[in-house]
Structures are given as C-alpha cells and as structure tokens.
Recover the amino acids of this structure.
C-alpha cells in the first residue's frame, strides 16, 4: 500500500481487514454516499432507473455466455448445498440480460431501458495492492442499456457518455476519456475514463493537439488517428469504462422485444461501469500530498471542521463559541448536516488542526488564542485555496456564503 492509501487508513477513512478487503468507517461512508448522490443525480437526469440485482449470479448463465471459462482465476465462485455453481459477481451482464429476457411482453415502445445499480463486486486478485485502487471487493456502479436498433444504441451510448463527463466535471479532478479494449466483457467498442497519475497501471497515448487518445495496449502508432498530430504517453488510473455490446449477451440469453411489425427482435445492449470506491482512492492520489489527504470538495467526509480549544487551557472559555459556530454554519446551504466539531477535551488545538488537515476537510475553523478577545477572532484554513486568514465571526460567515456563490 502506498503512502496516500496508508494515510486513508491512518486517518480513519478505511481499515484494511485482510489483503484486498476493507471496512469503510463512518467518514469513508459519508464520502461514498456523497459520490453516489452525484452519480444518481446525473444518471437519473438522462432517464436511468435504479435497481438491485443479487450479488450471486447463477453459474449456468456464465457458462452459457462462455465467461465461466474465459474470465479465468479472477472469477470468485461458490457451490451451494445442492452443488449448484454461483458467481460472486464482478459485473452483471448475464444477470441483467436474464432479467430483461424474463420480462413479459417487452415491446419497442418500452425501449430504451436504462437500468443501473451500485453494489459490491468481487474479483479474486492474485496480488491486491494500492489499497482501494485494486481490492478483492469493491463498490461499483454498473449500468445496462437495451435498445431496439444499432443506431438507437449509439445514441444511448453517447447520452450516457455525456452523463459521465458531467460526473467527472463536477468532481473537478483532471480526467481523460480514451478508446479502450473490449476485453473479457466484449462488444463492438469501448471507452475508458482515467485520472492521469504516475501510479496508474494503464499506459495511455494522448494527442497533444485534439486531446483524443487510446489505451496504449490498442494504440498502433505514435500519431493521432484523428488529426495526425504527435501523441504523448502518460499513465492513468482507470475509474470508469463504457462498452457498446451489440447482441453478445442478448442473443444467447434471449433478451427479445416485439418490434413494430410484430416480429421478435434481439435487444442491442450497452454496459457502463464506474468504480465508486476506486474514485475515492484515485482522487486522493491525484489531489493529495504525501502527508495530507485532499478531496474533491463535493465528496469530502465533512465540508467544515470546527476546532474547539482544549479543556483546561487558557482558551477554554471560547469552547462555547466553537459550538455556536458549528451550529450556525450547519444552517448555511450547502453546509447543512456537513459540519463536524472537534471538541475533544484532552487534545490541543495544534494537534486537532494537524489531524484535520491530514483528513482533508476543505474548511477548517480554529477557535484558539484570539477567540477569547472582546471581539473574537477565528482562523480559517481554506485547503482548496491553500490560504490561512483571521476573521471576525461576521467576516467568517460572509466568506463562507461568498464561497457558496462562487
């Protein structure tokens, strides 16, 4: 595990149970749920509906599609008491296609279907590493679409890609979209979304002129296929992947619909993944330092941390001010239910501040030596702007409200 992933563990965001398996603490769950909310919002905006499939998928479905054998040793499988095979699903193409095939009287009027879930997935990594970046159990958003024609499937694919662009733009972490391999999932074409990072496991070739690119494993030249300009090579952490599947799964698993002429036709499919837990770790890798976590502002565990004085210190009388600030800021949008108060009585202000910076709360308000004056002053550490300033209470509220407007 590298330094930043160790820091997630040290600061109580995650705890490693065993190689590749992690517990998300309440702080980690808050970040995860904030990210899920962003994904939910953008997918629902383009007409996607949320469901939840069983984590266990019948082994016979994977055998029917051929992936029981082709996936190899990374596929985690079990047998029940009746000796029936099941897959601890790393993805759910077989399960969702079987579900759609079971729908009674599916017609062209009901298409496209855009169905997604956010659940645990499993992969028997031979050597789990980099913390949440490559674990044996992980949280993934997987979306599956069903269309009536190839043309309609392309339109849906483009629509979902625009939603993906908005998700990553809202996170405000540098990202690139590149052409990728269809790999074991298969299909007609695919794209990958990466956070450029030196610890990334993928080599990418990006055009220096038009910014289009591809995974180096499928790139054949050092010249952009779109504009002919030179390409540069960089490394990236894959955080999302989209596939135009065609009829690879729907044909063999009989996901059919009634066409306008009354005939039975095969659904055209797409599948789209986002590594939810991986984004938590990857964003920290891109934004953080060796000693301090930095989050995309929208998914920090808490937006504001108020640091209260130590009990028994000269500033103890200002503890009440710290409680007042936390309560008042908690009533300002978008900070409602997003303020944490560090009121540990036996810990110094200095240590609390250091720990708050290491956790990476975007706004840290320190109620310290200057807070017991007739006109109390507080320190505001804005980690996004990398600034530290002293304000009166009124000036502090003005700063936070102005930040919201911007």
């Amino acid at each position: 595990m590298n330094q930043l992933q160790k820091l997630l563990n040290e600061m109580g965001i995650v705890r490693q149970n065993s190689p590749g398996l992690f517990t998300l603490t309440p702080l980690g769950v808050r970040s995860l749920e904030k990210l899920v909310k962003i994904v939910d919002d953008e997918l629902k905006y383009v007409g996607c509906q949320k469901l939840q499939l069983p984590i266990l998928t019948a082994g016979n479905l994977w055998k029917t599609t051929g992936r029981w054998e082709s996936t190899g040793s990374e596929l985690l499988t079990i047998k029940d008491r009746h000796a029936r095979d099941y897959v601890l699903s790393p993805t759910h193409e077989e399960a969702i296609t079987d579900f759609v095939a079971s729908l009674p009287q599916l017609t062209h009027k009901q298409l496209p279907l855009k169905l997604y879930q956010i659940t645990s997935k499993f992969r028997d990594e031979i050597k789990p590493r980099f913390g949440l970046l490559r674990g044996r159990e992980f949280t993934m958003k997987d979306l599956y679409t069903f269309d009536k024609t190839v043309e309609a499937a392309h339109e849906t694919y483009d629509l979902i890609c625009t939603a993906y662009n908005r998700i990553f733009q809202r996170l405000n972490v540098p990202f690139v979209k590149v052409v990728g391999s269809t790999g074991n999932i298969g299909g007609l074409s695919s794209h990958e979304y990466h956070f450029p990072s030196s610890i990334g496991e993928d080599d990418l070739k990006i055009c220096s002129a038009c910014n289009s690119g591809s995974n180096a494993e499928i790139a054949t030249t050092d010249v952009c296929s779109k504009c002919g300009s030179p390409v540069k090579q960089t490394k990236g952490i894959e955080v999302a992947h989209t596939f135009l599947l065609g009829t690879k799964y729907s044909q063999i698993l009989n996901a059919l619909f009634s066409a306008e002429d009354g005939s039975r036709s095969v659904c055209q499919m797409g599948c789209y993944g986002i590594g939810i837990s991986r984004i938590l770790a990857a964003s920290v890798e891109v934004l953080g330092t060796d000693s301090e976590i930095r989050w995309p502002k929208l998914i920090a565990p808490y937006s504001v941390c108020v640091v209260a004085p130590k009990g028994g210190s000269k500033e103890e009388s200002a503890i009440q001010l710290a409680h007042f600030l936390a309560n008042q800021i908690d009533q300002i949008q978008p900070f409602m239910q997003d303020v944490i108060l560090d009121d540990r009585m036996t810990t110094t202000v200095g240590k609390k501040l250091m720990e708050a910076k290491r956790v990476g709360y975007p706004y840290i308000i320190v109620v310290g030596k200057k807070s017991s004056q007739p006109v109390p002053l507080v320190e505001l550490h804005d980690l996004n702007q990398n600034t530290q300033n002293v304000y009166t209470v009124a000036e502090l509220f003005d700063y936070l409200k102005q930040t919201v407007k911007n």
